[in-house]
Specification:
Elements lengths: L5 E5 L4 H13 L2 E8 L18 H13 L4 E5 L1 H17 L6 H20 L4 E3 L4 E6 L2 E6 L16 H4 L2 E2 L7 H10 L3 H5 L14 H8 L3 H5 L3 E3 L5 E4 L23 E6 L4 E5 L5 E12 L9 E6 L7 E7 L5 E10 L6 E6 L2 E12 L3
Helix pairs in contact: 1-6, 3-4
């Protein structure tokens, strides 16, 4: 019997999850390693060699670490449920003119549930991952907060985890900075992990070409959406684009249209296959509506709560006031205009370092 109980660790084969497993074993947990196969790379159709955290080399690296340190390791095939939800959602959101957050959707609906299901089957008390964030009990709830490494903090992508999942989750890397984790990997005998490049690609788009992925997965896509208009905010036609799903709010490069100054995608109108272009200031938003709210720190968000609101992973956040409506959404009034609010992306509400909750951006109001 271990000192702290039995924990199932999600191991990608990378430095963070490997150090997580070895650290917990050293602390006295009984560790079981599990690697999730989410996608069949042979069917991706991309032109480049598979990359990222979920390829065969990574599976072998995870297994080798487990065998070397004397704890069991398993492969969990979740391709079917992953594809049914995450990939379908990814395609549907782009076709609706929104910008999806597949990693958040996977964490929220697939990976944690799959881990917990297998953990229960193997009598594990906890599940653990290598995310740079913290979780703690407080006032009868489990609260996510930022990791101490501001450059690596991943609390933003965990906003969708529900209380039953958080109550069983360990996030040991939240108390460390990345250089310390690299040194730990060396100390554990894995100097190659300290040098291993980290992938920030979407796991099922290994060539990082989401446009190509859409073309391969939506029959006749190009014939359906090509030839739409670029317009300005006054409605004047500026030229033709390649199809609205191939653009995202805030995009500046790759528009294939020039005006002698930088222009940005400010809005996508799928109903008319129209992409609106404007100046950088046209990306400013005074207000937005956030739906599909998951409450973390409190049972509910009080009307008028002040919060720092992040609208993308690397966003520093914009201060604003939160107002629940009668449909379960949160209306955010920014104190200063937020730039590049994109429907489909996640909005996460912070109180200090704590995640109050989060949701999916539905719409916004421009200050103009």
């Amino acid at each position: 019997m271990s000192r702290h109980g039995k924990v199932m660790v999600a191991m990608s084969g990378g430095i963070d999850s490997t150090v997580t497993a070895l650290m917990l074993k050293e602390q006295g947990y009984e560790v079981v390693g599990i690697t999730m196969k989410t996608w069949d790379y042979a069917s991706s159709g991309g032109g480049k060699k598979e990359t990222g955290c979920c390829n065969l080399d990574s599976f072998n690296d995870a297994r080798a670490a487990a065998v070397h340190h004397g704890f069991p390791h398993f492969i969990l095939d979740i391709r079917e449920e992953f594809g049914d939800f995450v990939i379908n959602n990814f395609v549907e959101e782009y076709m609706a003119g929104r910008t999806p957050n597949p990693c958040v959707m996977c964490n929220t609906h697939i990976k944690w549930r799959a881990l917990l299901k297998r953990a229960d089957a193997m009598d594990c008390d906890f599940i653990a991952t290598g995310h740079y964030a913290k979780v703690r009990p407080e006032n009868g709830r489990y609260v996510i907060s930022k990791g101490i490494d501001e450059l690596k903090d991943q609390s933003y992508v965990l906003w969708g985890l529900q209380q039953d999942l958080l109550s069983r989750t360990l996030l040991p890397l939240g108390d460390y900075r990345k250089p310390t984790i690299r040194q730990m990997a060396i100390d554990y005998g894995y100097p190659e992990l300290a040098k291993k490049n980290e992938s920030y690609e979407i796991c099922f788009v290994p060539d990082n070409d989401y446009r190509g992925f859409l073309k391969r997965n939506v029959e006749g896509l190009e014939s359906k959406v090509s030839g739409g208009n670029f317009i300005n905010k006054e409605g004047k036609i500026l030229g033709q684009h390649k199809g609205y799903p191939f653009y995202t709010v805030g995009q500046r490069k790759g528009l294939d249209i020039t005006f002698g100054k930088p222009v940005y995608v400010t809005e996508i109108l799928p109903e008319t296959n129209t992409v609106v272009l404007g100046d950088e200031e046209d990306l400013n938003r005074a207000e937005m509506t956030v739906a599909r709210i998951n409450h973390i720190k409190y049972d509910s968000i009080p009307d008028g709560m002040e919060s720092l609101v992040k609208i993308r992973y690397k966003d520093k956040g914009t201060a604003g006031v939160l107002h629940p409506d009668n449909q379960g959404n949160i209306i955010v009034h920014f104190h200063q205009d937020a730039k590049g609010v994109a429907p489909g992306q996640s909005a996460v509400f912070y109180e200090g370092d704590d995640v109050v909750g989060g949701g999916t951006i539905q719409r916004y109001i421009s200050p103009f």
